[in-house]
Amino acid sequence: MSLTQETAQSLDASVAVAADAHLREHQSSIWKRTDRIFAGLLIFEWIGCIGLALLRSPSAWNGASRTVHPHVWAACILGATIIALPIFLALRFSGAVMTRHVIAAGQMLMSALLVHVGGGRIEMHFHIFGSLAFLAFYRDWRVLITATVVVALDHLLRGIYMPVSVYGVVSASLWRTAEHAGWVIFEDIFLIASCIQGVTEMRGIATQRALLEHSYRNVEQKVALRTEELKTAQAELVKTARSAGMAEIATSVLHNVGNVLNSVNVSATLVADTLRQSEVPSLARVTQMIGAHRPELGTYITSDERGKMIPDFLAELATCLSDEQRNMLGEIENLSKGIEHIKQVVAAQQSMAKSSSNVNSTVKPADLFETALSIQGQSMTKSIEFKRNYRHGAAVVIDQHKVLQILINLISNARHAVMARPEGERRITLSVNCMQSPQGDRLRFEVADSGVGIAPENLTRIFSHGFTTKKEGHGFGLHSSINAAREMSGSLSASSNGVNQGAVFTLDVPVSAMSEETVCKQ
After folding, report:
1. Rounded to an integer, what distance in angstroms lies between the CA atom of residue 115 and that of residue 37?
2. Domain boundary pick from 326, 352, 378
3. Tag placement on the chain: N or C end, fewer CB within 10 Å?
4. Could you read off the pLDDT of 247-284 as tens digits, one per residue?
5. Are residues 165 and 31 part of one domain?
6. Looking at the structure, do residues 230 and 365 belong to the same domain, yes or no?
7. Bridging pattern class, strands 385-390 and 361-363
């Protein structure tokens, strides 16, 4: 057996164990709740039985002498005896197997007592069918078997010795008992099928919940692992920078890591919040409502005000769960891109201690802008209008991670600049163009914003180490960006018409095509 197969089997086993635990927890809550319902129902039936006896035959006459009718004594004493043990177990041992079966027997004996007090009238027998329907609330088909056995024995014994109390006639054949038992079994078939289907649905919900919990734990573990990797890489980075005497470069790299780490944290937080606020528990509540009204499900969905809302709610719930999955996949993709870029930034810093050679790769220039935006994250760019002017779409050979590092810094600065403007005036324009020069083809990336602008006296200072106009800034981003541009034999410049007039940052880098043709002719 391969390692992949062993891992898959281990995952299936852990999910199955968690699903079984959730199923048992759900069943236990149903059993306890139903036990308490029957405790109240048995008391109500006992009072109703006494009332029926007093209404129908309160007295018995022996000549001129009047006495209390035996039916009244039976309703009071026998009824209290029947309900005493079930109520005690429901209150003391709620949810136990024995409690359910004792309640089932007590409920059917109360039905038999009501039939007896009612003189065996056929209408009173409907209480038996109603009791079976109520017992189906347990979603345990074994309880229905116990109830059926009690009903069958009651009808058999009273049909032989006291037919008047059960059938309302002086004598009755065994076929009468068989007929009543047949109707009870007929109802049992549907109720048992309903119980089995209800448990199957509960098991499916429990499995989905277990899978979601496993995914949530897996995401948390990955985030924790990546965080530890980042801490380790950061520690190694500082150590390497110190030993090589490159403290300034290390500070710049840490700044670039911090830019991306913000969006990584946002993506991880959004995934965790989405899982915590998932609508899966709503599906369990709807299933409970359906199970509670299963005997009259068709009528409940078509006639009841709450039941009518179930189909529309399930459709909305399906859409909501699909949106949750799509959003989480998008955030996890952003998380992976951010971590990959951080790894490349760290790797570039570590290799810089050994050599200054660039690592070029083939990429489309427009993709670099889109990757930089996705690393920033949707939540970091809300309420900002982005315009794209990509005039060059062909793939080129370029040091993509250095360019991406610069673009992330420029977009981050532009985002902070436009956030000071009123909503509706926050615009950032991203442009890519190609230029020919005697030194070769060059790509020009531009980030133009409608933000706070740059004062004329600061245009020559903004790339200096430690210079910043932001309260929370430290002046490392643009300084590291211009150094990265120079390492690629490129340039980075800024222009602005003044304060509150926006700004344009231009990055020019040399590139080469994938073939012998020049880049700008493609």
Report:
1. 22
2. 352
3. N
4. 454 555 555 566 566 666 666 676 666 666 666 676 66
5. yes
6. no
7. unpaired
